[in-house]
Write a structure and sequence with these properties.
The chain contains one helix and 31 strands. The protein is mainly β.
Amino acid sequence: MKRWLIMTAVVLISSPASSQYFFDFEKGLSSSWVQSPPGRWQADTLSPLNGLRSLHHTYDNSSSATDRISYYTGRMLFPRDTFLWQFTLRHLYPPSSANHWGVFLASNQPSSRMSAKDTSTEALIVGVNFTGNDDLLKFWHLRKGKAEEIFNTGFNWQEKVGPRPATVRITRSPAGEWTFEIDTSSGGRFFSPLGKVLFPTSFPALFFGLSYTYSSARDQALWFDDLFLRGSFEKDTLPPFLRSIAALAPHLLFLSFSEEVLIATASFQLSGIDSFHIFQLSGDSLLISPLSSLAADSLYSLTISGIRDVAGNSMHDTSVLLCYHPLQWGEVVINEIMADPSPPVGLPEAEYLELFNTTQRPIWLYHCHLLFDQQDRLLSPVNLPPHS
């Protein structure tokens, strides 16, 4: 029997309010938990920490790797409420620089980007040897590709916990005071204080996550259970939509969405084209590369389904018409030359050329060059609207 009396249902909200999440994984691992790479974690019955199941790294890997899993919580409104994180964790092997774990208490990016190498990620992490190899439980702020140590609890996980479970409890006050506690009995009832630190930094955190780095002989050795998270969250309930599409070249389509999207379950159908490659440029944009060329000035239909945003909102199935039109002589012209900007009159004091789209269709300046004064300048891939 579980010791918890909290309902296992997750409270989902559409406006800022105090709420809580609790996961005991007894009913399995829902699709709201996003894995990177997929298939590395399960709600497993092998040696659970409590009850019948625990979240367990179950992937048998022949090489070293870092596997991550995340859950979208909604924006964490730190200054508005007291936040509490509590979880039980077991790591079977001695931690080292090559075998370690980090709990992403708050992150602005999902599991696919929960890495110190991703400069777009900002996160608050508690763990052992996320950086370094002293086996101490520490608290880091990850920002711009650098993990800064904020607080060292002085608690040696290998010496005082080893391969047994332990429960960690962390509290953040609205003023930014962080309190750390641990229960090595794994019952979640007898906590010992580990210390406090004032760190009021706030950023648009949307995810909770777990990162596990292991060598080839140390996979399948991390268990996680009874996650309790309480605070104020602002949920995203709006589905994404396709903002724009452009045929940049015979083998290249550019798609832009209203927000960051997930494409793991997405389906793309392009009329007359049997196969293509898909590349995610950034969170909100994709490139589709057909393996056979698009015919110039011919209409194609693209149907998209299965797109979701990071909050799990599904985009409506979308069909659009597109046409690849090779840029022709005279369709983009130099419309104005500012050769002498001094003195300035209502404009910046800078020389410029103004480009004008003479057609009735938008034109992407993709791989377009400006040749001037024996110099070749590659223009930015700007979209020129019709007659603009």
